[in-house]
Amino acid sequence: MAMLFPFVMMFAIFYLLVFRPQAKVRKAHEQMLKNLKKHDEVVTGGGIFGTVVNIKEQSVTLRVDENVRLEVEKSAITRLVKASQGGAA
To answer: How many CB atoms lie within 10 A of CB 51?
Structure first.
């Protein structure tokens, strides 16, 4: 029983330092993806900046330049650069 205690403590420390913060980051990312709306400015995992023009169940269409649109998977969006204004159409 005395040998089991150090392993339990190591797992508890590992959980507090790794798993829990990672779960918080994942939850925040999922919330950001869920709250995406048109005219939000985002960055993809590949470093492409774009403006959201259409949102589907699994993908998002981004305008990256005049007459250039890319359809990317939602999970490819890594961060929100600028949220759209509520009154902007």
So the answer is: 17
